[in-house]
Design a protein that fits this description.
alpha+beta, Butyryl-CoA Dehydrogenase, subunit A, domain 2, Butyryl-CoA Dehydrogenase, subunit A, domain 3, 4-stranded antiparallel sheet, 50% helix, globular
Length: 389
């Protein structure tokens, strides 16, 4: 049955035929449907609308959601395998996928009411619409408890006011999970998460960010002015919003770790191929030890990142504590992504600096993995706290 396996500290990484089929499907989709036109989409910062629709049809937008709500019912290992393959080619598509899967769908499925799941989760899991996770604010990035957006309790509804920043899927999403402060005296225990639909009066999509990388994902600020949200749209008990955000981000970090791994592996594969095509000083550049050492180091560190990503995914699937493992995977994989993509550009020389060869895009895309869903510094904080917990 198992065709690829790997053992680490008693953890069993057997990949089943189903896992390998998911990996292959994601690889084919990335090669055949994401690669064509990718340079133009990146140049124009154009949202990959038809490709996202296809991701929904192929089941990549609700991979881990129960089939009862239109999802694929798959495990986290399947999800990271797909994320890696898609990120090798198109990290913009993979962040759209990651936010929908591991922040929005996961958050709703794990903590939402049955009515919320029926109303919203099925639409998100099938790709009828996509979701956005709205935590960051102009003055609250890493310091996420400092929420300025308010959700005033008005009896049977909340009145939402404020601004969210750097929201992935900001314009293209139909359903947003909005974190806001209800009771400031209770600090983070006075924060709520509300499900807010696009089109709700007072809810406006703001400025589109002109980004260094992941340029074809759409990142916007969102503005809320006296937006009325019924109480039934609150996720969990009153004051659960910050815990909700943190718990959801623990899993989200596995998705971004897999994205970083894919970016690194994609750059490495391109560099390895190029090193066997390009000649200098009368031989393939792979024959030069300077290039061999770079590739050997890249292969080793990428494999180490892969182990951390699989470990975090497997722990989540086995319902074991994965907070530290997810933070370690994200920290390491994102640092490796930045380093390996830079090395891939170096191996390509002048060609690496131009767009047709893809590695400069991967290098630009890699940078964000050290920043979103918790910066590298925040991951170190999370890891350190777990060391003495
Ligand atoms: N899992 C579960 N709960 C957690 C948690 C975790 N990893 N980290 C903290 N908490 C809980 C704590 O238990 C505590 O709850 P109680 O008091 O009820 O026990 C509460 O959250 C507050 O925790 P702290 O006292 O530790 O708060 P802090 O302010 O000292 O630190 C932080 C919190 C870890 C720095 C947090 O603010 C954080 O993770 N910041 C980074 C935010 C982030 O990742 N943003 C990403 C934006 S989303 C995004 O990027 C999506 C996208 O578009 C791609």
């Amino acid at each position: 049955m198992a065709t690829a396996s790997l053992e680490l500290q008693g953890l069993n990484f057997n990949l089943s035929e189903e896992h390998l089929a998911v990996q292959e499907a994601a690889r084919d989709f990335a090669q055949n449907e994401l690669l064509p036109g990718i340079v133009e989409r990146d140049n124009e910062a154009r949202f990959p609308a038809s490709q996202v629709k296809r991701m929904g049809e192929l089941g990549f937008l609700g991979m881990m959601v129960s089939p009862d709500y239109g999802g694929g019912g798959m495990d986290t290992v399947s999800y990271v395998l797909a994320m890696e393959e898609i990120s090798k080619i198109d990290a913009s598509a993979s962040v759209i996928m990651s936010v929908n899967n591991s922040l929005v769908c996961y958050g709703l499925e794990a903590f939402g009411t049955e009515a919320q799941k029926q109303k919203y989760l099925t639409r998100l899991a099938t790709g009828e619409t996509i979701g956005a996770f709205c935590l960051s604010e102009p003055e609250a990035g890493s310091d996420a408890t400092s929420q300025s957006t308010t959700a005033e309790d008005k009896g049977d509804y909340y009145l939402v006011n404020g601004t969210k920043n750097w929201i992935t899927n900001g314009n293209s999403s139909g359903i947003c999970l909005v974190i806001a402060q209800t009771d400031r005296e209770k600090k983070h225990r006075g924060i709520n998460c509300l499900i807010v639909e696009k089109g709700t009066p007072g809810f406006v999509v703001g400025k589109k960010e002109d980004k260094m990388g992941i340029r074809s994902s759409d990142t916007h600020s969102l503005l809320f002015t006296d937006v009325k949200i019924p109480k039934e749209n609150r996720i969990g008990d009153d004051g659960f919003g910050f815990k909700f955000a943190m718990s959801t981000l623990n899993g989200g970090r596995i998705g971004i770790a897999a994205q970083a791994l894919g970016i690194a592996a994609g750059a490495y594969e391109l560099a390895l191929k190029y090193s066997q095509e390009r000649k200098s000083f009368g031989k393939q550049i792979f024959e030069h030890q300077a290039i061999q050492f770079k590739l050997a180091e890249m292969a080793t560190k990428i494999e180490a990142a892969r182990l951390l990503v699989y470990k975090a995914a497997r722990l989540k699937d086995e319902h074991k504590d994965y907070v530290q493992a997810a933070a370690m995977a994200k920290l390491f994989a994102s640092e490796i992504a930045m380093w390996a993509t830079t090395e891939a550009v170096q191996i390509h020389g002048g060609y690496g600096y131009v767009k047709e060869f893809h590695v400069e895009r991967l290098m630009r895309d890699a940078k964000i993995t050290q920043i979103y869903e918790g910066t590298s510094e925040i991951q170190k904080l999370v890891i350190a706290r777990e060391l003495i917990r």
